Amino acid sequence: MTTRSSTLSIPWLLGGAVFLALFLAFLLHFREDANPSRQLANKASRVDVVARMQLALASESEAEKSAVLAITDKDSQAFADQARAATAAVERDHLEAGALLAASGTQHEKDLLAQFTEAFGQLKGLDEEVLGLAVKNTNLKAYDLLFGSAASTLADIDTALAHVIAKHADAPNAKRVMTMAFGARLGMLRIQTLLAPHIAEESDTKMDQMEAAMDKEEAEVRKDLDGLTALAKAEGDADVATTLSQFGRYQELKAQILLLSRQNTNVRSLALSLNQKRKAMAVCLDALNALKLAILEEPIAGVTYGRVPKPR
Questions:
Q1: Which domains does the chain have, with CATH numbers?
Q2: CA angle 29, 31, 36 (to 5 degrees)
């Protein structure tokens, strides 16, 4: 009888032992989580990763602005690479932050990280657009052509036309030659002065208006040069031939300048950087700052962070 009773109690004893072991494990886990030192270390880890994200974003912003403002393709590309490397660092820290918050963060902190995640996605899209435009430097290349090859070609034309005027100074047709030569010189100068604001212009409509004005000036220049060409055929004037050749070269350069100007990569990248990109960056930084403050404000029993407790 006694043996049977002892046999029946064995399962109960085993069950009690298992329950006691689980209860003790729960208490141990609870005591570890409630340990102030452990909680402080956990909080420090979360604050640190958020701070790294803030620093990487600041580095990305500085590199992106430098890429936009750089004056050579090489420098623009170097800064663009730095900006992308900083973005990659943010993405790595973002994954770490997500894991830390999943393990011990509050729901409010998780919500703040979700806000950052959404804002950061928009920021990355804008950033790639800005950097993709910045490294092309089409406006800078247009300026280089305008004040380099085009200006030099225009100077050659001006010199050749000055020779034409000088050679006909005492001729019966001097007045007519001067009128056509000066008309061509002034018309080309007007075209040259219209190209600079065209390169800087952001509006397609205004660029259309400038190009229409250039076309009008060019038609007048062509008319004057045709008149001088008629004289050159009769007199064999080499300076008129030089003028025509250089004018053709100038037209080619002008077409290249207008093509680069229309792409407007420097103007567009700067506008995006100063407007949409700046606003998107502010949203990201605000979300991270709010997240860091939320983590710092988490209470830990027995920890006052150096503050003197208020008397009851």
A1: 40-135+267-296 (1.20.1440), 138-263 (1.20.1440.210)
A2: 120
With bands split at pLDDT 50, 70 and 90, how would you rate the model's confidence at 310?
A: low
Residue 287 has pLDDT above 70, yes or no: yes
**Which value, to the nearest 10 degrees, does the dihedral of the CA atoms of residues 37, 43, 44, 45 take?**
110
In this structure, the number of other CB atoms found within 10 A of the CB of residue 306 comes to: 5
Helix (H) or strand (E) holding 164: helix 151-167
Residue-wise pLDDT tens digits, 124-161: 999 999 999 999 999 999 999 999 999 999 999 999 99
Q: Which residues contact 246 (CB under 8 A, 6 or more apart)?
A: 153, 156, 157, 160
Query: CA nearest 145: which of 242, 268, 269, 259?
Result: 259
Structure tokens at 157: 């034309």
- Cβ atoms of 284 and 152 within 8 Å: the answer is no
* pLDDT for res 23: 45
* Alpha-carbon span 61 to 66, nearest angstrom: 9
